[in-house]
Design goal:
19 helices; alpha/beta; seven-stranded mixed β-sheet; two-stranded antiparallel sheet
């Protein structure tokens, strides 16, 4: 039997589908799973009669692979990745390649890369987005790590990735170190924001406008033919029209508690560490946390049952405002995410190509949407662009849609529907375009109680000074610094 082009460890949903994707593109694949029953089940069902080689030990897997060996890990992020790597190291040769295709923290990727490099082994942290369907038919793949390994894995990863315009792969080299997993993390953070924004629009539709599920599905269907065209709008349309076995809307029976696996939270932490305003995505993470407090929410609903709001009759102007609110907020969410990518790239010397990243997200991934081409164009047209909101196309779209966003946030506030992400989008925008924020008062307060000093507008040197506000304190000032 011919040697396998690549080995894959981990036959859960993503792993299985990636194997089938690889095989369909002409690659021989060797598979291994810690639980042997999964191997047998897979090779006797979906993998039957395909060029897929089952192996039942790490040495057997290694011996099945052509050199340099390429092994993709699709195991749960965390300790499981480290244990799998440790089991592989004794059997690998120099210049063999390990690819982590899970949602690992980029700092873990950097640590693992250093460890493997000390053994002469190459390491790639590759973010893979697209869920089950993407893994099977073509995901977006974001590889980073040892640049020396890219030429070996490029034909494989680009071969199985999604294609746009029939030929352009949604996979390209991101950069060194943990950059691939960092980009995937930010992708997931934007995904959190997108999903929260859509859910808030849905909440307004059902609670304030009293729309039926078929009406809501029809509206999302129409929106999917406009600038909001995207995978998440498309599946929202389908979810809202889906019937349960009793012919009632299935969505009504789904518990309103949303889970999370960590990438959204990591994005928020990295935004804080890089001093980037990621407020919309942060609110999306907190919204999921709040959803988990179901018993408290039920108790609070009873305690405040006297607060009631009237339903508003359907009208086309409100539907148009909902569209504008969602579109403007989505732009702001992406602007925040790309600002984090840009700042982290500078702080880590990654030299990320933001235009290429936008193009990689056009197909296969969860946040694929029509205006990613516009994002790519924005960074091509202005390589020093600091924020997407300063690009001419996005400026035009925000100016056209910001009034609808204001109307919808006002409507939600006055009618008791929580819109943390929509409201955050508007607050971010209003802060972003303000040249006179109230933070001068905060700095004065800091100097008053802690002698943290401030800078004067009328002093061109911008030196830090302290005022003895009470005439009782001294002139000694605290050291000035920012975290």
């Amino acid at each position: 039997m011919d040697k396998a082009s690549i080995g894959l460890i981990g036959l859960a949903v993503m792993g299985e589908n990636l194997v089938l994707n690889l095989e369909s593109k002409g690659f021989n694949v060797a598979v291994y799973n810690r639980t042997h029953e999964k191997i047998d089940k897979f090779v006797n069902s979906r993998a039957k009669d395909k060029n897929i080689i089952p192996t039942y030990s790490i040495p057997q897997l290694i011996n099945t692979l052509e050199k340099p060996r390429k092994i993709m890990l699709m195991v749960r992020a965390g300790d499981a990745v480290d244990k799998t790597i440790d089991s592989l190291i004794p059997h690998l040769d120099k210049k063999d390649i390990i690819i982590d295709g899970g949602n690992s923290n980029y700092k873990d990727t950097i640590r693992r890369m250093k460890k493997l490099n000390s053994n002469g082994i190459y390491y790639i942290g590759a973010g893979v987005s697209g869920g089950e369907e993407g893994a099977l038919n073509g995901p977006s793949i974001m590889p980073g790590g040892n640049t020396e390994a890219w030429s070996e894995v490029k034909p494989i990863l680009q071969g199985i990735s999604a294609k746009v315009n029939d030929s352009e792969p949604c996979c390209n080299w991101i950069g060194v170190g943990g950059s691939g997993h960092f980009v995937k993390m930010v992708h997931n953070g934007i995904e959190y924001g997108d999903m929260q924004l859509i859910s808030e629009i849905y909440d307004i539709m059902r609670k304030i406008l009293n729309l039926s599920y078929s009406q809501m599905s029809s509206i999302f269907n129409k929106w999917n033919d406009k600038e909001l065209n995207s995978y998440l709008i498309e599946i929202t349309r389908d979810i809202l029209s889906h019937k349960d076995t009793d012919n009632s809307p299935l969505i009504e029976k789904i518990l309103d508690v949303a889970g999370q696996k960590g990438t959204g939270k990591w994005s928020v932490i990295e935004a804080l560490d890089n001093s980037v305003d990621l407020s919309l995505i942060t609110e999306a993470v907190f919204a999921r946390i709040n959803s988990g407090n179901l018993s408290q929410r039920v108790e609070a609903k009873k305690a405040y049952s006297d607060i009631n709001f009237k339903k508003i009759e359907y009208n086309e102007d409100l539907i148009n405002d909902l569209y504008s609110a969602l579109f403007a907020s989505k732009i702001i969410s992406y602007a925040q995410g790309f600002s984090l990518l840009q700042e982290a790239s500078q702080n880590n010397d990654w030299n990320l190509n933001l235009s290429d990243i936008a193009l990689m997200w056009r197909g296969g991934c969860i946040i694929r949407s029509s205006f990613l081409n516009n994002i790519s164009d924005a960074y091509i047209n202005n390589k020093s662009l600091n924020n997407l909101l300063l690009d001419s196309y996005f400026k035009e779209q925000i100016l056209k849609n910001q009034k609808g966003l204001r109307n919808i946030v006002s409507l939600a506030v006055l009618n008791g529907v929580a819109t943390p992400a929509l409201s955050s989008a508007l607050s971010y925008f209003d802060s972003f375009i303000s040249d006179n924020l109230p933070t001068n008062l905060i700095q004065a307060q800091r100097d008053f109680f802690g002698a943290h000093m401030y800078q004067r507008k009328d002093d061109k040197s911008k030196k830090f000074i302290h005022t003895n506000w009470t005439n009782k304190g001294g002139t000694t000032a605290s050291t000035n610094y920012d975290v």
